[in-house]
Amino acid sequence: MKKTVALGLFSAGLLLAFRPAPLSPETLKTEALQDLQAHYAEYRQVAQRIWGFAEVGYKETKSSALLQETLRKNGFTVQAGVADIPTAFVATYGSGQPVIGILAEYDALPGLAQQAVAEKTPIAGQDAGHGCGHNLFGTASVAAGIELKKLLREGKLHGTIKVYGCPAEEGGSGKVYLVRAGLFNGVDAVLHWHPANVNATMVGKYIANTSAKFRFYGIAAHAAGAPERGRSALDGVEAMDNMVNMMREHVPQETRIHYVITGGGKAPNVVPDFAEVYYYVRHPNRAEVEAVFARVVKAAEGAALGTGTTMDYEIIGGTHDLLVNETLAHALQRNLEQVGGVSYTPEEAAFGQKIQASLGAPAPPVAQAAEVSPYILRDLGGSSDVGDVSYVVPTVGLMASTWVPGTPAHSWQAVACSGQEIGSKGLMVAAKTMALTGIDLFSDAELRAKSQAELKQQVGSYIYKPLLGNRKPALNYRD
């Protein structure tokens, strides 16, 4: 019996001696880069199909379904319709800690339908277009998630990967509802990216934002035959707009207030009994947003009183500012520099120069798309619901050059680039950088711990509260 036990122990020792050593993170990164590039054509096709769908916020039925199908085919378990949003989903692979999340967006913008050409050429019969490149955004995030899943399946990494399908970033605050539903509880870190005209780590501030639709109700009447019997809802909107415009002199200078009149009547000779105006209020500080928005509400109430109309309003969206996690940002910067930027063919460079000529402003050389920006703080210039995610879990992102240098977001030029090969090349920069950073996060417990300690220090005693309150998702805000 003693001899048998000794032989068993000897055999076990031999197995341990010859067990392959764990692969280094750098070896895994080389493997991931090669595998992602090998599947470039597949991911480009997915992105192009979503570009063609061009579905606006909370209406992204085909886009969401395609990304879900891609993830399921690659072994993910997909929970669809989360947080009371039909087009939101969470795709999961693996088990245990750490849990790494990746954000995916896929909504288009109204009024930006454009062919993938260097001249302004609308698409007949289509309204929306991917002027923020979210067809590329969602696809790259799915690609990075699948690559990390492969390493988990092969036992080269351990833990759980989650890909979050995030609808309606463009004004619908989709991620806020996912945060509110607790879908990021237990997640160790989150990766994201955004299409852009540069390759850079996202080290800067998205500003906080609250948006609402103000609706005025009056009394219809013949504008010439019985004007005294009418009460114009449009007068209410215009009076509100005048007061808010006067208020601009008396708010902190970083404040941004935007509006569009979304309904103002149907005929000049009918006193409008309904009118609507859609407002955004932004500021780097979430508390200042709440304060200024309260003043905008008072202006609306005064306008209704002064015009003999009534008013109500609906909060459409509300997002926090973005917390920059520098621990993760430095790690991502190293990976972005390893991946590099986008190289144009001569034909793509010629396309880029035509796009730049249409901008009406000086632009950097098209070759700048191949460069990676140094690690610097920058003004991100807008708002995003990723800010809310950054308040509950360490979050890091990058910008990848999917558009010709100098191209602004939310433009027909951005739509055209997002449908071209140059956009798909930028998609791969993002997918590769997120995959490499994901490998770091799975492999390095100290990196995760430091990022979590940094977030705790940033948040301090603040208890996260959605700026949009308890309202249900505004599923029809684009109607």
Strand residue percentage? 15-25%
Integer average pLDDT:
94
Total strands? 13
The domain count comes to 2
Global outline:
globular
CATH superfamily of the largest domain: Zn peptidases
- Sheet bearing the most strands, described? 7 strands, mixed
Secondary-structure map with pairings?
Blueprint: H1 2-18, H2 25-38, H3 40-53, H4 61-73, E1 77-80, E2 89-94, E3 99-105, H5 134-153, E4 160-166, H6 174-180, E5 189-196, E6 200-201, E7 204-205, E8 208-217, H7 233-247, E9 256-263, E10 274-283, H8 286-307, E11 310-319, H9 326-339, H10 346-357, E12 378-379, H11 386-390, E13 395-401, H12 412-418, H13 421-443, H14 445-459
Parallel strand pairs: 3-4, 3-5, 5-13, 7-12
Antiparallel strand pairs: 1-2, 2-4, 6-13, 8-10, 8-11, 9-10
Jot down its keywords.
disordered N terminus, Aminopeptidase, para-aminobenzoyl-glutamate hydrolase activity, 479 residues, 14 helices, 41% helix, alpha/beta, 4-stranded antiparallel beta sheet
If you had to describe this structure to a student in words, what would you say it looks like?
The protein is built from 14 helices and 13 strands. The chain is of the alpha/beta class and 479 residues long.
Summarize the structure.
The protein has helices at 2-18, 25-38, 40-53, 61-73, 134-153, 174-180, 233-247, 286-307, 326-339, 346-357, 386-390, 412-418, 421-443, 445-459; strands at 77-80, 89-94, 99-105, 160-166, 189-196, 200-201, 204-205, 208-217, 256-263, 274-283, 310-319, 378-379, 395-401.
